[in-house]
Structure formats: structure tokens, C-alpha cells
Amino acid sequence: MNKPEGRIFFGSEACETMHHYFDSCFASGRMIFILVDENSRKCCLPILLSNCDLNQYKFTMIEIQSGEKNKTLETVAFIWEQLTIGGADRKSVLINLGGGVLCDMGGFAASCYNRGIETVNIPTTLLAMVDAAVGGKTGFDFITYKNHIGSFYQPSGIFVFEEFLKTLEIRQIEAGLAEVIKYGFISDQSLLEKLYGSKTETLSFNELIQICIHAKIEITTIDPNEQGLRKILNFGHTIGHAIESFALNREIDILHGEAVAVGLLCELWLSVKYKSLDSNVLNDYILFYHYHFSHLTYVFENANEIIDRMMLDKKNSSGLLKFVLINKPGEPIWDEVITNDGVKECLEFYNTLKI
Ligand code: GLY
Known about the structure:
Layout: E1 7-10, H1 11-27, E2 32-37, H2 38-51, E3 60-64, H3 73-85, E4 93-98, H4 100-112, E5 118-123, H5 126-132, E6 137-142, E7 145-152, E8 157-160, H6 170-186, H7 190-195, H8 205-222, H9 237-250, H10 256-274, H11 279-293, H12 303-311, E9 321-328, E10 331-338, H13 340-354
Parallel strand pairs: 1-8, 2-3, 2-4, 4-5, 5-8
Antiparallel strand pairs: 6-7, 9-10
Bound molecules: glycine (GLY).
């Protein structure tokens, strides 16, 4: 097989396809670059190389530093520099082995290098497996605004190896659960039953990942460039991104999934207040939130700081704050305008849960 053709591969099929892919790149003289960070180099690269029998192949490794604070133009420029020094040409391939931050930056770097080279995602975190690595959004943060610069650029293949989850700290897994439960609210409510009342270690991750990826592909196939339907994937993200951006600016340690978990809480509250969402849906989520995210103790004293950040979010326009809300699980609506006072109230609600 010459190119994995934009498909998603799991487990042993992923290994076999990856092996053939390396084989065909090698046979046709295409250079392979693998983008890693210190975590994926240490914990995941050896598993990938040995499980898929790739040690015999020559590739160039590009290592960047992990973390949202490094999701910058400087890091992207570093990737371009390393591709250039390594002799990458238009036929070269960039394989992104890492979490959401790395896949986003690698995808962006590939989308511009030589006007676009082939790229492949091998997500190593739950969050990247269910969301970031799928759907072709790429980019980096700019002057602390989340994903401010970016492109839509589809990877030619996505390879999911569930065993990488064993290399993660529990905090990373729980952050990923926020993106998983998001799909329960916007698309497949069977996820809510699967997640509620289960301990993290007893969850069937393979099943969860497949459900989420299936939902994401369905949505992004209909609306790849986020003109309408794809916006539902931003449930929990309007407030989540503003919190993340705010935290980034103040060097507060919060993972993307954790900010989304807070965002979901606030946006479910808004759905109860302004739409027809049953308050039991919010109450059930609050229990889930307390179980997985009780370590998040930050209180928002000044809602205006969050609102200011939201105004600069690309999802909002003409000074209006637009949200995805839900009428019930599986029934999302997008472009719902909420006033500044509405946002203040939902942040106050979040603050009261912390006391
Ligand atoms: N993470 C949201 C999207 O891919 O549209």
C-alpha cells in the first residue's frame, strides 16, 4: 500500500499498514520524518518501532518540547528548520507521534512545508485519539490565543494504538474523558451510560475511542471546514478555550481536556437556563465532574477576563458570544448567542461548586 488514504487503523491492522507504508516509502525513496516530544520519544516510539517491526527502516526524528506553552510559531519554525536541514522534499512524509498539541503543530507544519507534504497522525493520548488527530484541524497558539493561526489539512492516515494509553498519567486520561463525554452530549448518548458510575480503570477504552472517532468522522465528512454542523464539536470549548487561554497567559497549569470539562459544566448550565435541557443531565454531569476533576480548584473572580478572551475566539463574531448548547443529549444547536451577563452567571455557578 502506497498511501493509507485518509483511513483510520486500529491495533494489529494499524501495525501491518504502518509496516507496509514504511516499506513503500523506503522503496520509492521517500524520506520519513517522525515528530516526537520527550514523552512520546521515551514511552511510545519504542513500542511503535518494535510492535510494527519498523527498526530496520531509516527515518529522521524531530523532537520538540511537550506542552501547550510550546505550541508556538517558534516550535513550528523549528520543525520547518529540521525538515529543511534533514533534506525533506515534496515527497517526504511527516509522522506526528504525540498528543493533541504535537499533532496540531505537526499537521500545520506539514500543511505549509513546500506548500504541503503528506502527514500521518499517530495519537498517543486519549484526547488526541478521540478528537485532535481526527478531522484535519491544525495550528498553534499565538500571543496566548488558542489555535489562533491554523489550517484545515487532512492527514493521509490515522493510526490508533490503544496500548499507548498505558503510558499516560491518570490526569491525562481523565482530561481525555472530557472530550469523550462531549460526544455523549452532542451525538451518541450511550456514551453517558458507559461513563457514569464507572471507575476510569474499568472503562472499555477501545469501544469509547471507536464511538467517538466514528461520530467525529461522520460530522467532519459532512462539514469539513466548520461552516455549520462541525461547530457542535465545540460544545464546552467556547468557555473551555477562554479558560485555557486565560490560564496560558498566567502560567496556570490546566490541560486542554480539563478546561473543556469546566466548559462543559458551564455550557450545560446555560443549556438548562436558556434551552430545554433537563436539569438532571447537568446534575449527573456534576457528579462525573466531581469524580474526575475535583483537583481543579481555580475560582474565576473576574468573569470579564474570561469574556474578553472569548471575544477574540474565532468562533465569535461581531461582538457576539456564540455557543453550542443542547436541548437534550444528542440534540445540539449552534450559534446560540448568550449575553455577557449569561456568561457571568454560569461562571458564578461554577465558582459555587468549588466552595
Ligand atoms: N476539535 C474540534 C474540531 O475538530 O472541530
